[in-house]
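Justification of resources, computational component.

The compute hours requested in this renewal are based largely on the per-chain cost of generating structure records like the one below. Each record pairs the submitted sequence with a full C-alpha cell output. That output is archived, and it is also reused by downstream analysis tasks.
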Amino acid sequence: MSSTSSDVNAPATVQPYPRREVEPMDPQLTMIQPGGGIIINLEMFWGRWRRFWLKTFRRGYVKKMESTRKGDFNPCPHDVLDPRDLKYYENQGGYYWDEQDDPFAYRSRLPFAREGLAELIVLSTLFFGGAALLSWGILSSSVSGVLSVIGWLLVLTLVLFGTEIVWFFRNPRRTIPAGEGVIVSPADGTFDTIEEIEHHEFIGGPAIEIGIFLSIFNVHINRMPVAGKIIKLAYRPGKCLNALRPESTRLNERLEVYLQMPEPTNRPMLVQQITGAIARRIVCRLKPGDELVKGAQFGMIKLGSRTVIVFPREAGLEILAKPGDKLKAGSTVLAKYAASSTEATHEEA
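The structure output for this chain reads:
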C-alpha cells in the first residue's frame, strides 16, 4: 500500500481517540529480559560476589549509595547496593538513583548498547582472545603447510566473529525529526512488509502494519516511534523461526508495547519486538505508565530479528517509506499525519 497525493491532502476529520487507562504489568515480565540467558546467569553470579565484597570492604561506599537512593521498595530478589543491581529489574519500579548520583550513568552514553555490554565484553573476549591464543600457538610451534593455513583461517574467522559482535552492539547517535504527526522507525533494518488492517482491536479501527527485518549487521536498539505513554506490555512466548518468514510475526516469541500519543490526538500505536532464528533475547526496559519522547531508546533484540509497528490509518496519512528501504531507528520517517512538519530536528540527548 502506498499513499497518493489525494491521501495527503484529504481533510483530517478523525476525532481524537479516547484516553486509555494504563494496565498493570504483565506478570510474565519480572525482568527486562524475560527469556533469561547464559549471560544473565553469569551477571547474577558476579553480582553476588560483588555485593559480598562491597559489604565487607567498602561499607562507606554502601552507606553513601544508600543515602542517595530513592524509591520506596526493592524490586529485586537481592540487595540493592548501587545502580548496577537494578540493571535487569528497572521495569519493576521501586528503587532508583538520580543521574547525578549514579556513578555508572556514563554507561548509557557509551557508543554501545548498555543492555548488551555484558555480552559485548564476554563474547568479544572469547573471540579476540581465542584468536590471540591461536595465533601465539601457530607462531610458537613448528606448524607449517596445510595445518598452518587452516590455523590462520581459524584465526581470521575468530577475528571476524569478534568484529561482528562489536559491530552488532554499537549505539550510534541519531537526529530525531520533530513534528507532532511524524512517525519514525522503531528499528534499524529493511522495510519488509506493509499491510492494511480493516479493524485492529487496540487501534479501535483501520490500521497500517509495517514489518522491519533486522539482519545481524543492523543496530538492534529499539526506539519510540512517537512521543507517548506506555499503556500496556504483553509478553508472548513462542518459536524462534527465521525472521524473514512471514509467519514469524505470529509464531515467534515477542514483546508487545502498546502506547498512546499525547493530546489532542491520543493516537494509539503498537510496537512488537520479535525474536528470530539467531536472536533469542528480547530486552524491554519499559513499564506501564512510562512517558517517553520520540526516538527514545527503550530496549533491543539481541542478534537478528524483526520489529513490527501498527498505527491508525486515517485521512491525511502519508506513508513516506516503501518496501525495500533501509531504515534507521529514530531518524527515518516512516509516515506522517496531516498538518505535521518534519522540518525541525533535534539531536538525541
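The longest helix spans residues 117-140. The chain has a mean pLDDT of 88.
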